[in-house]
Specification:
It is a single chain. It contains eleven helices and 17 strands. α4 packs across α7. The longest helix has 17 residues. The radius of gyration is 21 Å and the shape is globular. It starts with 10 loop residues before the first strand and ends in a 12-residue tail after the last strand. About 40% of the residues are buried. The N terminus is likely disordered.
Length: about 375
């Protein structure tokens, strides 16, 4: 790769906050998606993400891209920030997956600085150690500053065979590219290929080889580079990028562009893609199973887990119960095993754990 250290660009954090979280209904709904709910900790996931990256970019260099339908909610939850930086809140007229979100943000940043570097973050993930996370992102930013034709992604060392995450196959080591002082915690590899969510047997094989990482969905690149790759991948992106500049045609642009993730649109065929093996724990919090992993300490002697209620059980094992509203509410389970029970507002979900992946079908 060429070295362009003379083309220093401003650095920006981009928070993708337009998802619905269909696998977490009824805790996550179109009107109140999971990233704006307090599922772990004491603040919403989106607010935790914002506070995690502000030390890296400063408040005025953080963009939040959300759904137009959630504009009022976002303005309320980020009221003080929005009052100071209203131009850093972008609202998509309709959901079109991560490629459109990233294209919109990259276009805005390119107009502000043709050399801008953007780090893209999902708004609704769990990060165990903010300090190590920040050190990893700073390493990635430095790589892109020095090598603007490369793409950096963040991979997570798997500790169990997970079928709910995408994977990254590691290629040759490029740890020599990163600063000496972080090599004891962070490794850099060429990305051999991106892998779709595997079967359980395949996930077990990945775990045995130590050659695969979980795909965190965090990317770092120059805005002009990702825009160039999008245009080269499909001429429709050229039309989209022109139309989103005009408030009168942005809705049409979103209606006509296909819904596709950045992984499928660009990453699978991109060159010069490198992955930093992260030294922190991570979870996408995309299922009730993943939320249960965060609450292992709440389990009783029969592996029943309750959050938000007083759980009373008789001959019941390995159930997960989550309620919102009255904290003192009693939930009684008798003679049932392996259930997920979730009450949120006026909705109630009861599903066997083995069929949790069918929850998203509610939205079809």
């Amino acid at each position: 790769m060429k070295d362009y250290t003379d083309q220093i660009g401003s650095e920006w954090g981009v928070i993708m906050a337009g998802g619905i979280g269909t696998r977490l209904w009824p805790e996550s709904t179109k009107e109140y998606p999971k990233q704006f709910r307090t599922l772990i900790g004491k603040k919403s996931l989106a607010k935790q993400c914002f506070e995690r990256i502000v030390p890296l970019f400063d408040e005025d260099h953080v963009l939040l891209v959300g759904a137009k339908s959630n504009r009022k909610l976002i303005k309320y939850l980020f009221s003080s920030v929005h009052a100071r930086q209203p131009e850093n809140f972008l609202f998509e007229p309709s959901p079109r997956n991560t490629a459109a979100c990233i294209a919109y943000a990259a276009s805005v940043l390119f107009e502000r600085d043709p050399n801008a570097i953007m780090a893209v973050f999902p708004s609704d993930h769990y990060i165990s150690d903010n300090r190590l996370f920040q050190k990893t992102i700073l390493t990635g930013l430095q790589l892109v500053q020095n090598h603007p034709d490369c793409i950096i992604t963040i991979g997570i060392e798997p500790d169990e065979p997970q079928t709910g995450f995408g994977y990254i196959e590691k290629g040759a080591s490029f740890t020599r590219m990163i600063p000496l002082e972080v090599r004891d915690r962070i490794r850099c590899f060429k990305v051999e290929r991106f892998k779709e969510k595997p079967s359980l047997q395949t996930a077990r094989e990945y775990l045995k080889t130590y050659n695969y990482l979980w795909n965190s969905g965090i990317f770092i690149w120059r805005a002009d580079h990702i825009l160039k790759l999008l245009r080269a991948a499909d001429p429709a992106w050229d039309v989209f990028l022109e139309r989103i500049k005009n408030p009168q045609t942005i809705e049409q642009a979103y209606e006509e562009i296909r819904s596709i993730s950045i992984d499928y649109a660009i990453m699978e065929n991109a060159k010069d893609v490198f992955v930093l093996s992260a030294p922190f724990c991570w979870d996408d919090l995309g299922s009730f199973h993943s939320l249960a992993r965060m609450d292992e300490d709440l389990k009783d002697q029969d592996d029943n887990l309750a959050r938000g209620c007083n759980l009373i059980t008789f001959d019941a094992r390995n159930n997960q119960v989550r309620t919102s509203g009255r904290r003192n509410a009693n939930v009684v389970l008798i003679g049932v095993n392996d259930l997920i029970v979730v009450q949120a507002r006026n909705n109630l979900l009861i599903v066997p754990k083995e069929r949790e992946n069918e929850i998203k079908n509610i939205f079809k």
